[in-house]
Amino acid sequence: MLSLAASPLPATRIHRPDATSHSSSVRLLRSLARSRRADLAHRALLLFRSLQSTPCPPPPHVSLPAVLSAAAFLSALPEGRQLHGLAAKLGLAPAHTVVANSLLHLYSSCGLPDAALALFRRIPDRSLVSWNTAVDALVGNGYHLAALDLFREMQRDTDLAPDAYTVQSVLGACAGAGALSLGVYAHAMLLRELGGDGDGAAVSCDMLINNSLVDLYGKCGALELAQQVFDRMPMRDLASWNVMILTLANHGRVCESVELFDRMTQVEKVAPNAITFVAVLSACNHGGLVEQGRRYFSMMVDEYGIKPRIEHYGCMVDLLARAGFIEEALDIVAGMNCRPDAIIWRSLLDACCKKNAGLELTEAMAKLALEVPDDAVSGVYVLLSRVYASAQRWNDVGMVRQLMIEEGVKKEPGFSSIEMEGLVHQFVAGDTSHPQSEAIYEKLDEIQQRLTSAGYKPDLSEAPLVASVDCAKGAALRLHSERLAISFGLLNATPGAPIRILKNLRVCKDCHTISKLISKLYGVEIIVRDRIRFHHFKDGSCSCKDYW
């Protein structure tokens, strides 16, 4: 940690300006802070400390925003807290709006959205920049619904008109929350704010905005709209191609994703980067295209000289293992230039489960996965329990449950959300908190009766660990969060409109089966975005072709 208290710097010679050179010193400080280079940003911190040692330092309301920008770029929280303390001592935080806004950005960059929001609430005179920074802090740290709530608060409680920066953040929040109608509303605001004479020309020519719109519509399950925005772009940068290739891949349009990659590299002559190869390898993974995946991985290394990252290895390991090439996947892991993470071991564990690789190998994969520090360790226990459940080894399932209790491991809670008329409704398993709960469960009973009549039998291996008898397991499956969301959607969706659901975990096999059946029995398209990809259920089948 660098101390920003005024003190001599024996190892660093920096000119100490007098009062007449404040302007040039501040210009230099700003230039260093805006350089987007770590070494120069660090230099900005040193310069600020040096300036504070002079008899007449620059006005703090001018120098603090610049040095806070440097600290934010470096995610230098200890130094940032020192600067916050100095600002508070001088009466500038949160009273001075510009300084306070810079502190908001600092805490956001350091992954502390709660601290940023707490400071935001204390700013007496919030500007549009204050609101934009606070909304962006929530979006950037995954607080998508909270960001949308804050945006609504701005619209409700202030006379401030959203600008392009506001809407850019709102688009990101809508994409993260899967809130399509709110995203369409934000798109309309962009057209109004930047449309100039009303024809939307300014928006259509802005690559950053268009890239965000492709991402928004892709993540909200509106693939056709994403494709439409991409096709109408007058100019595209590498990010444009990357987001469209990945969007197609995530929606199961594997051939189209691969064809777009080939068009980009061979026709448009755009050089791919590491992110492009994550996208195209994801397409190969979703489609089980083993040979193409091998070819693109070799192309990345041999033709483009791109050093594989953990994400590339993860795609290849998952692709090979799920296709049954577990030994080859293990060879890739052995040759990695970085340490395998828990995701890679879980991919191998999951493949062992699905390919019936044998309990010995499966248990070995689980042991390796548990040795890697990871917050999502509960997923390993859940997968292992499913292996035992599939083998009808219920005592071992209970052992896993007991081990989780002893280790203090809690299963990551699953939730499903669905947007209806601009509001996002969120459900957890067995949820009874929704105002329409009684009607939702009545609809669920009706769905269950129709599923049973159609010959549906639950896959009990997907039931929670605590369920000990078949009837309890079946009841537990019936209360999965996505089923509540589907029931709510059937009750409230416009006839003929798709039901769009966002799920924070990977969809389980049993829910995948019943979603296909419901789509056929009720004549409705159900679009589910889980942790891994999209599933478009229609007429009794899924876009993933049951390969996920």
From TrEMBL:
A family per Pfam: E_motif
Coiled coil: none
Biological processes, Gene Ontology terms: RNA modification
Domain DYW: 455-548
Record-linked Gene3D superfamilies: Tetratricopeptide repeat domain
Domain of life, source organism: Eukaryota
GO MF term set: RNA binding; zinc ion binding
Region of interest (Disordered), residue spans: 1-20
PPR repeats: 237-271
Keywords: Repeat, Transit peptide
NCBIfam families documented for this protein: PPR
Descriptive protein name: DYW domain-containing protein
Taxonomic source organism: Oryza meyeriana var. granulata
Phylogenetic placement of the source organism: Eukaryota, Viridiplantae, Streptophyta, Embryophyta, Tracheophyta
